[in-house]
Amino acid sequence: MVALPPIIDFHAHAFPDQVAARAIPALEHAGQVTALLDGRLDSLLASMDRAGIAQSVLCSIATRPEQFASILSWSAAIRSDRIIPFPSVHPAASEAVAQIAAIRAAGFLGIKMHPYYQEFVLDEERMWPLYEAMAAAGLILVMHTGFDIGFPRDRLCDPAKIVRVIEGVPQLTLVATHLGAWDDWDAVEELLIGRPLYMDISYSLQFLDPARARRMVRSHPAGYVLFGSDSPWADQGEVVGLLKALALDADEEAAILGTNAARLLAGGDRKEQTA
């Protein structure tokens, strides 16, 4: 029997307390969804305790270029053995490439971006220098992929665009969220499943038939599926339960819950070009 590793949630969100009080109601209204937590860091940590989660990658999103410094500062203040912050850059920032270097210099392991909230298309021309800078720095890019519940269904970050990015910058370590592309899973199965591309399972198992989810997970390379919840939009413990309900082999389940993420965060699979 395989002993389960510590669980790592590769996709969670929280905000500074004063921001959470405004952000969560606004996001609930935009997506017509109800948050399971109030968006504060203390609430996320309490959720982790309840769900038996050892570490969470905390994904921030700069919705305006001028938010970079405050997100970087807050990320530095909250990082700990349990919280692994991924700051954010906005593609409209004239100094975005320099900001990527600053994130690396500050010791962070990755960056979070979101095409809908940051108003970009995944494979548009201005994005390539950013991807190349992230690849050169050995940073992990957690990218929202697929549709978004709070926006019109414009194809900003669909599987075809993901393929163009990973083929255009093969050294980029990209994590495609929501099992490859939220609510675009036919295209995920056609274009992404089977490629050496990281995917997290956040906000996906709730919407998929369990047999289909199991098939997708088992058809993807074993080392490239990561546990993620998208907390506070899903309950971390419930997502652990949904994964366990897929009845994967013990080693497959252990890899998704923590082993794959631990290896990636330790740098074992990152395609770093720097010395």
Can you describe this structure?
The chain has 275 residues and is α/β, with parallel strands linked by helices. The chain has one domain: Alpha-Beta Barrel (TIM Barrel). Helix content is 41%, strand content 12%. The protein contains 11 helices and 8 strands. The strands form 2 sheets. A 5-stranded parallel β-sheet has the order 4-5-6-7-8. A 3-stranded parallel β-sheet has the order 1-2-3. The protein is globular.
Main sheet, how many strands, which sense, barrel? 5 strands, parallel
Strand order in space, largest sheet: 4-5-6-7-8
- Summed up, the helix count is 11
In the CATH hierarchy, what is the superfamily?
Metal-dependent hydrolases
CATH level 1 class label: Alpha Beta
Ends distance: 39 Å
Strand fraction: 5-15%
Helix content: 40-55%
Query: Which spans have pLDDT < 50 for at least 5 consecutive residues?
Result: none
Please state the structural category: alpha/beta
The geometry reads as globular
User: Looking at CATH, which topology would you report?
Assistant: TIM Barrel
CATH architecture: Alpha-Beta Barrel
Quaternary structure annotation: single chain
Overview in brief:
This protein is α/β, with parallel strands linked by helices. The chain is 41% helix and 12% strand. The protein has a single domain, classed as TIM Barrel (Alpha-Beta Barrel), CATH 3.20.20.
